[in-house]
Prior knowledge:
This protein is α/β, with parallel strands linked by helices.
Amino acid sequence: MARPDELTFAPLGGVGEIGMNLSIYGLGNRHQRSWLAVDLGVSFGDEEHLPGIDLIMPDIRFLEKERKNLMGLVLTHAHEDHFGAIIDLWPKLQCPIYATKFSAALFEAKCAAERNAPKIPVTVVPSGGRIDLGPFNVEFIPVAHSIPESHALAIHTSVGTVLHTGDWKIDPTPIIGLPTDERRLRELGDAGVLALIGDSTNAVREGRSPSETEVAATITKLVKAAKGRVAVTTFASNVARLKAVADAAKAADREVVVVGRAMERVVQVARETGYLDGVQNFRGADLYGHFPPDKVLALCTGSQGEARAALARIANDDHPQVTLNKGDCVIFSSRTIPGNEKAVGAIINGLVTQGIEVITDRTDLVHVSGHPRRDELRDMISWVRPQLLIPVHGEPLHLHEHAKLARTAGVPKVLICRNGDLVKLGPGDPGIIDQIPSGRLYKDGTILEDSKSRAVVERRRLAFAGCAFVAIVVTEKGELSDDPEVDLVGIPEKNAAGEVIDEIVFDVVVSTVESLPKARRRDPDAMAESVRRAVRSVINEHWGKKPICLVHVLTV
Length: 556
């Protein structure tokens, strides 16, 4: 007798970390499954650990292998950590993509701004709509979040219904878009939910996230009180916040000037999709200098300290059109993403040094998270009443706290998994039944590299201990035919005693070559290896670090 279909879930990114979200759901048996992918996002590189790496993406080799069984990719919303990898990775999958209107429009604008972006078709689904993808019936349920048209997905199957929450919070007054659809979530709970796959980002924070409306009131108060120029920086995608800033400017009789490409792009898409209807027209950065200081507000990119974004350039006083002076005010209407603290701190310090007043969420309610705190997580559990809860979208601490909360809230089964775990959701007892290939891909310039790639590993070593280049010209008998060339990069010029390290290395190269037995002298590879070891050893002796050493032996 054929075994009944199993419903499985596997995270390929976004579990045990925040960012790089990719979840897959499978329906079928061990030999043949249909797959559904949810989101395909990026994480951002960290210069300290990954020099030169801009973006980190999930490794999708498993989905490449299963391409013919992949029914489609469904997007919960248009944040980079949920859709930022599509342009680079979709060509390997070529599957249909489904998203609601705003997400599809923002994706189209992103493709248009990218050089040589492939043509990627997206099917638009109405908010609240349902689509059939093979054996999956996917329903888009509106939830509040910090970007328009965020959706939880109810994935209906023959085995049961899974609620994939995506990023969400409870905000009865979200300014833009629909609040979280409590009524529909309660209906799902009444009908029976097999599993809830839930956002854990704020699972360590008690209480509830404040509303966007409260932030809007604070921003209005601050802008009205400001005497000189005002700059506000926030996540470009937070259209509700952009509207709140525009309303505050209007109340204070100020013109809004948009500074930064990402901000311009979102404003354009938000206007096209009707989310800024009734909001005054914004001005281009070229008009900033035409307005008196108390009549202008600059809406800037750069809330995360990005070096090339508008705010960093303004803080360094090298923006071609926008300047700030003593007595002006900058409002950081954002939260610093972990890992960006240094970069943001440098900008804030730069502004303060110039006598500019800086306001952050440490002192004023100028930002709220788009993720649920503990009371909101309890509400979701009580509405949906899942048989199983799997915490996702969080670091290990967040997952652990979410799991603990779910157990106390009476969820019958709670399971913590990691990227690459294949979890059976039903029928029968849930559990981890297999491992599937997972990992990271690095976007290095225009190339996608495996995380074990030589370039990344070597670059880290180069950043730590520099490089020694040695060129040796020898005769066929292995005698030096000229002085060796030594070039040290990223290595101190002198040791602690004041001796020149170049000269020390030069002497070691000569003495190493001359002391080699005749047979090794005639073997260029053996000579190069002996010199390499000697150079690394002598530099370590005088500096305490072993550089990369490249030796080139030329026979004449």
